[in-house]
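Researcher: Go.
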Amino acid sequence: MIAAVATVGMLSSTLALAEVSEDSVIDPKALMAPAVVVESVAAPVAVESGTQNSMDPSAESAPHAAAIIDDPDTLAELVDESDVGELTADEKCLATAVYYEARSESLAGQLAVAHVVLQRAKSGRFPSSLCGVVTQPGQFSFVRGGRMPTTPTHAGQWRTARAIAQIALDGSWENPVEGALYFHAARVQPGWGRPRVTRIGGHVFYR
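Model: Structure:
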């Protein structure tokens, strides 16, 4: 007698983006800690093996248990698992922007900055290359005279920035600031008349 049991479990995923009103009083300490936790939970996918006839010789080699495909459950896990190898010029520009603009932010905040650069390049309103977006005059304060700064020396933060840049390019984690083309530090109020997307940590994002 042949008995086959397969169990498939699924967990719902959640995405929380905290909005902060324009009248909110911002605690300076809040700028140093992420105000938003963006996390997606992906359950392992169970792949059910095909049913085999006991008289079929190939049945002996068939798997008797479901194969499990493991996916990262958090953005932190995905960053840890990312293979950050040699970078192209545009990839390095993107990673450098993440490093200098958001290295003190949460991983979600760093990913948000990376997506702003990517969305600018695709918008038709900014240069079409990532390096062109990053070095455009008057856009990023860490760029002086149209030149990129030296390669960061903090190995851990630089590796994280490179991993975040690659994740954004691959689209392997949900974009927390879909459509955003601008952002500023939450400690300033530039009075932009732009539609606001959200605030993540110490940055506020706009379309």
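Model: The longest helix spans residues 107-123.
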